[in-house]
């Protein structure tokens, strides 16, 4: 798909990190961008700075997502591109069932945290895919035959979840698992779907980490021995969106890291 001012995009989690880097990359190609993000404190300023439209959206809430699409389309027209970057976890690391080293007490995983993590990462992504794809299907195909293209964000944890990551790993494994199905479901409509599996990236989530923690994480990466840059994610996302033969793929972007049990 040829990127330019006649193309509109929606990016979830777009006010920071991977989503913001992707928004900037698409805007550099002339694409009209709407940022879906629930952070209303920074979102409007970020959007104004880069020339995007901010939509306060919680991807865990259907009405919020629907309203976001209405606002984005009123400003930019029907989107042909969707990049899902909204995600995270709830409750911190927890084993499936843990035993205390101090007193032997047994603590089951908080099921509510498991459900909320799946709702944010997996259901939230699918909710936005459904909304965007339904809109894309109303468009005529481009000269390349594309009605639209979707990029999801999973994680290497979806293939190699570490101890205490069972909810997050399950959610990201679900994102990986739905990619080919979505691509097949939408193939006859000219809508492609791919997923990126980032490794350890230098995002706002790690901004509060101590330098020694970042150094230790960097040392885990075979090459290059550093954290990934958001711009590197954005570059791959842009290629997935514009390359018409890129479809149904889950691609690791991780410096060859393979996560150990802990």
Automatic annotation (TrEMBL):
PROSITE patterns the record matches: ADH_SHORT
EC category: oxidoreductase
Keyword Transmembrane: no
GO MF term list: oxidoreductase activity
Keywords recorded for this protein, A-Z: Oxidoreductase
Oxidoreductase listed as a keyword: yes
InterPro entries to which the protein is assigned, alphabetical: NAD(P)-bd_dom_sf (IPR036291), Sc_DH/Rdtase_CS (IPR020904), SDR_fam (IPR002347)
Family: Belongs to the short-chain dehydrogenases/reductases (SDR) family.
Protein name listed in UniProt: 2,5-dichloro-2,5-cyclohexadiene-1,4-diol dehydrogenase
Species the sequence originates in: Sphingomonas jeddahensis
